Amino acid sequence: MVYDKIVTWIKPKVPFVKLNSDGSVKNHCAGFGGIIRDHNGNVLAAYAGPLNKCTVITAELNALSYGIDICSNMGCNNIWLEVDAQLVIQIINNVVLGNPQNFYLIRKIKQSLSTFNFYISHIYREANCCADWLANLGCTLDHFQELNINSLDPMLKGMITLDKAALPYIRHV
Q1: CATH dotted code for 4-172
Q2: 3-class DSSP state for residue 131?
Q3: Does the pLDDT value for residue 2 go beyond 80?
């Protein structure tokens, strides 16, 4: 049975910032990206970067790791992590171990998170569209970029505006 589900991006409550991250793997490239926003939905940071060919989970974990590092550098202590990969949540919450090839990356993420007040949750891909867009951008880049938040691509700015207004996305299930 096919049905539609309405999903939205939700602003974090003070004092939290929200980190949405995503990984992308295509035929000939891989990338990651993420966006960090405050309680009003204003962008604090956005980033994207390329990866060598890898699994989707490796890309997702890299996206999360870079975002956590940026939060740390910004001095954010309270972070709501939101990802569209349930497996990443299970790895962070110690429900599953994860692939041994990601051992050091997972360890780095967990060690970094031990210094934060954080929680992690799932978001459907449709409502994670900003991070998804940035991950796809990462596939096209030659090197990691922390984007200038004052001159973001109009397409990304439009998605940010829709999220700030809490406009719904339709998920076809």
Answers
A1: 3.30.420.10
A2: helix
A3: no
